[in-house]
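Possible regression after last week's pipeline update?

I re-ran a chain I had predicted before the update to compare outputs. Posting the input and the new output here so someone can diff against the archived version. Not blocking, just want to make sure nothing changed silently.
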Amino acid sequence: MGNALLHIPSCSPEEVGIPSAAVERYIRSLDAERIPWHDILVMRRGKLCCEAYWKPFHAQFRHRLYSCSKSFVALAAGLLIDQGLLSMEDKVLRFFPEAPADPHPWLAEMTIHDLLRMRTCYEEGTTYAGLSSNWIDTFFTAEITHKPGQVYAYSTTATTMLCVIIRRVCGKEFMELLRPAFDALGISREAFCVEMPDGYEWGASGVILTLRDYAKV
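New output (post-update):
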C-alpha cells in the first residue's frame, strides 16, 4: 500500500464536533442488528474521525465496488472527451467494426451520450445472455424497442461498452487512464479492475479498492 494510507488526516471525533460516545453507540447498534458489515469510516470536515473493521476484514482488504465502478468509467470517458479524443455525439457503432453489417436504424443512432445516460435503444437493458464469453455481442443482439435517448433503462452493458470504447480510442484501459488522478489522490497502486471474458476491464462492476482508497474519491 506504500504511503497511500497516510493521505487522509485523522483526528478524534471530538475535534470535528462528534461525541465519541455517539460513534460508539452507533457501531454497537450495527452489531446489535446483526448487520454483516465489512468496515466503516466516519469523516467530517475532511478528517477521518472513526475507522472500524469487522473480522476478517482489515485496512488493506480490497473490496469490489460492483456498480459504483461505473462512475470511474464515466470519468475516464470524460477525460477523453476533454482531450478531444471522444465526443458525446460519436456514434457507438463507429467503434465496433464487428457489429452487424446492416444494423437497426435506432441502434445506428446510439451515441456516447446515450451510453453515459443509460438511454440506449433497449427498454429492459441488456444482459450477458447465457453467460456468453463474448459480452460485446450481447449488446448488439438484444431486442431493440425504441429510439435511443428517449427511455432510461439501467444497463450494465452500456458501461461495459464504454470500457471497450475507451481502450479502442486511447489504447489504455480506463484504470490506467485514471492512474495520474489516482496518484494525486493517494490511491494505492494495488487498485485494479477485473476483466470481462472479452479481455477488457469490466468497469461496469469490477473495480477493486480498499475502503480508504474509496474514501478518497
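Follow-up from reviewer: compared with the archived run. Residues 156-170 form the longest helix (15 residues). Marking as no regression found.
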